[in-house]
Amino acid sequence: MNNEKRLWNLSELEGFNYHRSTIRKKLKQAGIEPIANKGNTPLYDIIQVAPYLCKAPMKETDAPDLMGFKTAAELRAFVQAEREKLSLQQDALQLVATPEMESQLGLVIASMKTFAVNAITRIETAIPNAQPEELELLEDLFNKDLKQVCDEVSSVSS
What's phi and psi for 140, nearest 5 deg? Predict the structure, then answer.
């Protein structure tokens, strides 16, 4: 067996997903010293250091809920991207705040009701010989249409 393959430097030990400084700290805490040097580069026996650099598996109860993301960093990046997207949409006026939308819908409905009342009055004025029953029928039709439009607008805003 070739012992050189067992001897790893800090750059190679980064394969355990730790930074060099963290590796040094972990090995120092474990009391592990380099067993050789290649030039000025310390070399460690991989068989000796691996147990101290392997991450202990998390118990499922200890694991945070990462919503399917592998790391908390990925989750944070996703949340930040969604916040930025929302902010851009609001800036581009693609989204309207709920109170503003409700206020605008109220104005539209009030305007439509005013139109219906004014339309009946104008018809009465323009056609002086219109019968009251005809005007009532016309008003009922306007109210039915107005209610249908209001219902459609309300269902869209929900």
Answer: -60, -40
Residue 49's closest CA among 70, 28, 21, 73?
28
Q: Which residues contact 100 (CB under 8 A, 6 or more apart)?
A: none
What gap in Å lies between CA 112 and CA 127, rounded to an integer? Answer: 22
Q: At what angle do helices 132-157 and 98-126 cross, to 10 degrees?
A: 170
pTM for the full model?
0.35
Q: In 3-state terms, what secondary structure has residue 130?
A: coil
Residues 99-153: tens digit of each pLDDT: 777 788 788 878 888 887 888 888 888 888 888 888 888 888 888 888 888 777 7
What gap in Å lies between CA 150 and CA 80, rounded to an integer? 38
**Cα-based torsion angle of the residue sequence 69, 72, 78, 79 in order, rounded to the nearest 10 degrees:** 130
Q: Is the alpha carbon torsion for 61, 66, 67, 71 positive or negative?
A: negative
Q: Dihedrals φ, ψ of 8, to 5°?
A: -120, 145
* 96: alpha, beta or left? (left if phi > 0; alpha if psi -120 to 50): beta
The pLDDT tens digits of the residues spanning 33-53 come to 999 898 999 998 888 888 888
Query: Residue 52 corresponds to which tokens in the numbers above?
Result: 């101290």
The conformational region for residue 31 under phi > 0 = left, psi -120 to 50 = alpha, else beta, is left
